[in-house]
Amino acid sequence: MPDDHVAIQNLIARYALLVDTGDFAGVGDLFAEATFVGVGEFTGREAVTAMLENTVIRYEDGTPGTQHATSNLIIEVDGDTAVTHAYVTIFQALPDFPLQCIAAGRYRDAFARVDGRWRFAERRVTIHLRGDLSRHLQS
Questions:
Q1: Closest to 90 in 3D by CA, of 38, 130, 121
Q2: pTM above 0.70, yes or no
């Protein structure tokens, strides 16, 4: 149904907005009952929030200076579950770091409809192309 697709697409977009604005607790809320798999596996609000707080650098404005662009989105809904596949390209620019692509990869997401609302069940992040991540991730 089109409404299902829009709701799921909005969750994917909200993740990018929250990360790029430095709202890691907001990202944690998206994964309150979900698992985030990337470099490690993190389940639930507190674990996902802590993972971002401990790995992503935020600057004076409270943001990581990034912009996540999600594209090539495929949404497959099956009743109260859905699976999506998408590309992600992460750009970063800082006063002393010119605009550039710092990473590109894929998201594979699983969603569940609970009490009539779509929620993340799982996100798997695979990064295939790496640029200069020195200003994005803590070492």
A1: 130
A2: yes
